[in-house]
Amino acid sequence: MFSRFQRFYNSIKLLADLAAIGVAFVLAYATRFWSGLPHESIPPLDDTLTFVAFALVLIPVTYRQANLYTTARARTHLGEVFEVFKATLFASLLLVSVTYFTRERYSRATIVIFVGYTFGLVSVVRVLFRSFMHALRRRGHNLKSVLVVGAGELGQRVIATIEAHRELGFRVVGLLTRHPDKVGTTVMKVPVVGLWSQLGATLDQQSVDQVVIALPLEEQAAVRPLMDELAQRTVDVKVVPDLFQYMTLRGGFEEFGGLPIINLQGGPLDGWNRVLKRVFDVAISLTALVLLSPLMLLLAALVKITSKGPVFYRQERMGMDGQTFEMLKLRTMRVDAEAQGAQMASKGDPRTTPLGALMRKTSLDELPQLFNVLKGDMSLVGPRPERPVFIREFRQKIPRYHLRHLVKSGMTGWAQVNGLRGQTSIEKRIELDLYYIENWSLLLDLKILLRTAFGGFLSRNAY
What we know:
The protein is an alpha/beta fold. It folds into 3 domains: 2-138, no CATH class; 144-242, NAD(P)-binding Rossmann-like Domain (Rossmann fold, 3-Layer(aba) Sandwich); 272-456, no CATH class. Helices cover 49% and strands 13% of the residues. The protein has a 6-stranded mixed β-sheet with strand order 3-4-2-1-5-6, covered by helices on one side. A two-stranded antiparallel ribbon has the order 7-8. The protein has a two-stranded antiparallel ribbon with strand order 9-10. The protein is flat and about 85 Å long.
């Protein structure tokens, strides 16, 4: 029954997409030829009909190849829109190629407008449809029944996750355990319906759409007979590996030459993400240097006038992958400030000059780090870099401290805009730094920069 409903659901999606594509073309045609935009001539009717026919075939076929007509309950709204964007872009290239080689060349401006409208309308339709299905599932409709093999900690985590995301439409109908005394009891309000060895009999007695195997590492020997039994069934099978306890940052699954790999630790900035962040850094830092150069020149002159010594202070810091670099700052302390060795700044530090105290309070002494960003040693946003002499101590005392070096150090960061500067909790700072790395996006970078610009420079903990 569920597969029949899925086919009906996919048919509705296909019809909605076809309607959206048709409306998109009408809007594109009207925008190009009826809105007053300059154009040479209106294409003949037969050319228009041919193009529409190609579009109504090629775009849905491309969507199908992109798995946009398969079940993807765990996909987010944003993930759905992104998949539609990629598939629409590919379909548009295919559409242009087919019309070109068949000599049915159509107005390029109309095609560009049509592709934009198609992406927008299909995305809106998909998000509305997904929202409707989520609401339907929250009310107990269109649910997939799930049997969980394993009633221990991992199995309970599966139940908790499913309950936390009821909009995805899963319902745990039973648990299988290895302990005979637990059969007939409940775990997190879910009945324990049998033993692992009774998997086949349980599937014969109950209507189950999906089996989730959630066994601890020490019980992996039991997986083979379970899989042998499931190989004779048409039920969906999922395995939750008991490795999440070892995942430290951005863990997940990868594929290496067709071999599935579980990634326990990794960084967020690979491929295009790294390129986008670097372009963002260069563009913003160059703009900031141009706009702030008069202020920086004024501050440099004041530093030179009010105290003896160089204008800039260079300090060794540790950045991405544990590489050290010289971080630039406007000098805020006396030249002999570290004659007795490296030490952290403190509130009311006697080594600070009067002008230096003001600059540290407002973070204006950090402005020369825009040159570090331009050079590539730092990023605009990221964990604040620390001195190697202190890092050796922090690594021994604070678990996961080293993970903050998976990305470039930043002029500002998530910890700083949340008030954690100066001699505040290192542990809390690391927690927020790792949150930033785990959830990195250009949008988050922009949010942090805006919060820094509108109040982030001033902090009661800055000294």
